[in-house]
Design brief:
By secondary structure, the protein is mostly helical. The protein is built from twelve helices and no strands. The protein has one domain. The chain is globular and about 45 Å long.
Length: about 300
Amino acid sequence: MQNQTPAFKDYALLISLAAIFGLSFIFTNISVREIPPLSVAAFRLLIALLIMYPIKQFAGQKLPPIGYIWIFIFLSGLFGNALPFALVSWGQVKVDAGLAAIFMAVMPLSTILLAQFLTDDERINRWKMAGVLLGFAGIVVLMGPGSLNQIGDELFRQLAILLAAISYALNAIITRKLTTLPKYSMVTALMLASTILLLPASLIIDQPWDHAIGSKSLSAVMMLAIGSTAIATLIILTIIDRCGATFLSQINFMVPLFGVLFGTLLLGERLTANAYLALIIILIALALSRRGQRASSC
């Protein structure tokens, strides 16, 4: 049963989750220096699967039986894990961790826009529309108005991270079909589907055994798998069980802030003035969209 009033523990979990997601951009930045991006994403999922499977077994839960539900499991595995993990890893070869975190902040705004066309109960009102338009204005500021006139590798990598955010948004709609599954069973099934989708491609394309990989990069991938994938998923489920998805959505304000903070403190990144301006614009956009969600629920 969900708590109507979040307790201190719930806010502590929320802040911890935001910090874990913020750190994921740091670990990705470190790991892709020596490990091919596709392999970073694939190994992250494989290790998370090896963690989640015994947890599922200990909880006495079984994988969903073969049937129609696996179509949605594989779709969710594709758009919620395999595709965005690969895109973010590839993007961060050239894009700083702080910038990547800001780009990913458009995910909830993208969800609002997609829900307008793909669902019957999530309609756009004036506040949501204002949030979406302002959020994408923030992206223009972040990339720079002249970016399309200077098409190059870095621009494509920025667009890849934006595409990952849209992929996450699409997955937020797909996962509605999976809410009836036991939580550990659902997460393990998603990790299994994601690994099946990504691991063969990474082995064929990257041939990671041909790369000289140091302990620092391996440790970063392990932290991505343990923290940002397995533990983060368990925290998400705990928060939703206790306080609901609306309370969890507040994390969208904190993740880009943690991403920028950790990028500055741990990697010595120095963002441009327009990046900080874009961060402010996107956070305001998120606030407007949340007002729109409250208005539509009244």
